[in-house]
Structure formats: structure tokens, C-alpha cells
């Protein structure tokens, strides 16, 4: 009986301390994207540099009888010598709060605009006179 009480109290403690309060996304063009998850006790941050972001997609996941949508960053491999399809890393954003598709589409379009503007800027810098 004591073991059951200890296990249940541990599970309740774990559930309370690992409950997600909020998720946020900080985008600084040409620098990177930081995804933050705030728990009841603490937070977790993940940073992806702008140069390593290949693309951003809305990923569709079917789970049981539900369709879930995740905003996902496609990250280039660190080692550029062997670029293979399976070497691209997927980083899902907003895994816990699961915003609706309409909200994800707004964030997606803003991120896409920023990515294409930076890629156009890089292409414009690359063409022209050397000097």
C-alpha cells in the first residue's frame, strides 16, 4: 500500500512540475529562431541559427481519430558535404499547446516571407562585382 502511495505521489508531482504553461517563438531574421516552452517549474529553450534553416512547413499528423497540425522547421545538416534526404532534421514547434491551423498559417506565412527576403538578399549580394 505504501508503494502505491509513493508511486502515485511521484506521478502527481511529475505531472504538476512538467505541465506546460506556454510556448513562444522568437524570430530574429538573419540571426535565428528560438522556441521556448515554459513549465510550472522552469523553462526549456531551443535555438536554431538562421543559416541552418532550410524551410518551414506545416506538418499534418494523424493520431487515432484526430488530425493535428504542427509548424515544423526543416534544418540543414551541420556537415554540408553529404546532403541526403534523411539528413535534414525536423524540429516541430508548438508541440504542447497545439494551436489551430488558422494561427499556424499566419505564423507560417510570416516566417516564409522572412526566409524568402533573406534568401533574395543573399542572392543579390552574391551576384555582381567582386570588391
TrEMBL record:
- Source organism: Manduca sexta (Tobacco hawkmoth)
In Pfam terms, one family for this protein is PIG-H
Keywords of the record, alphabetical order, are: Signal
> Where is each Phosphatidylinositol N-acetylglucosaminyltransferase subunit H conserved domain found?
24-80
Q: What is this protein called?
A: Phosphatidylinositol N-acetylglucosaminyltransferase subunit H conserved domain-containing protein
Family from the record: Belongs to the PIGH family.
**What is any one of the record's Gene Ontology cellular component terms?**
glycosylphosphatidylinositol-N-acetylglucosaminyltransferase (GPI-GnT) complex
Q: In which pathway does it act?
A: Glycolipid biosynthesis; glycosylphosphatidylinositol-anchor biosynthesis
What the entry lists under PANTHER family is as follows: PHOSPHATIDYLINOSITOL N-ACETYLGLUCOSAMINYLTRANSFERASE SUBUNIT H
> Would you indicate the residue range of the signal peptide?
1-22
Amino acid at each position: 500500500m505504501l508503494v502505491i502511495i509513493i508511486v502515485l505521489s511521484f506521478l502527481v508531482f511529475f505531472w504538476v512540475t512538467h505541465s506546460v504553461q506556454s510556448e513562444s517563438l522568437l524570430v530574429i531574421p538573419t540571426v535565428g529562431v528560438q522556441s521556448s516552452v515554459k513549465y510550472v517549474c522552469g523553462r526549456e529553450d531551443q535555438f536554431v541559427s538562421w543559416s541552418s534553416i532550410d524551410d518551414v512547413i506545416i506538418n499534418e499528423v494523424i493520431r487515432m481519430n484526430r488530425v493535428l497540425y504542427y509548424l515544423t522547421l526543416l534544418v540543414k545538416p551541420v556537415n554540408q558535404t553529404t546532403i541526403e534526404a534523411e539528413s535534414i532534421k525536423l524540429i516541430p514547434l508548438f508541440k504542447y499547446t497545439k494551436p489551430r491551423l488558422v494561427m499556424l498559417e499566419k505564423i507560417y506565412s510570416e516566417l516564409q516571407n522572412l526566409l524568402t527576403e533573406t534568401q533574395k538578399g543573399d542572392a543579390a549580394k552574391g551576384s555582381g562585382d567582386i570588391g
